[in-house]
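To whoever is on call:

I kicked off a structure prediction for a single chain this morning and the downstream step that reads the tokens threw a length-mismatch warning. I double-checked the sequence; it's 184 residues and nothing unusual in it as far as I can see. Pasting both halves so you can look.
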Amino acid sequence: EGDLPADLGRYVLALGRVVPKKGFDLLIRGFAQVAARHPDVTLAISGDGPSLGDLRSLADELAIHDRVRFLGRLSRSQVASAMASAEVFVMPSRVEPFGIVLLEAWRDGRAVIATSKGGPPEFVDEGRTGLLVNPFDTLALGQALDRLLADPQLRDEIGRAAQERVRDFSWPVIADQYQDLYRA
């Protein structure tokens, strides 16, 4: 674990600290619902933490252990490489204040599925720059995965819109917004 395996093929990526708050168990459940419809797609989870054993057990229990890859903690360059090659990026957090990782996915033109709990609904334009899903609704999470995996045109459209949207989060733009706020 740690290197990007050459045999990942098509994959859905999630990354972060492997703790319950990040919702990787919910993502595994959602992926299990659509895995048979997308036999060439792997779920790749990057990160480490105390819940890793539980996630492995869950993948075994759902009989998708051969379709879920745990990549371990990746270096910044490995994260960039993993993000650039992913079909879809998912942030299934039970609650997420913001989600810088979504901006990283957008920078690489990835279609994203983000939690509807917390900050992402404030900046993700549903259906245009990403899909928002209640992570506790694993059926809806699976349906969002299925929708993006089955529709390369939709993935590309969302990825292009996301690359445009991420410019709004550059330091010069944010600095201008602060100046406007102080002037007001």
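Update from on-call: the warning came from a stale cache, not from the record. Cleared it. Sanity check on the structure: The chain has a mean pLDDT of 92.
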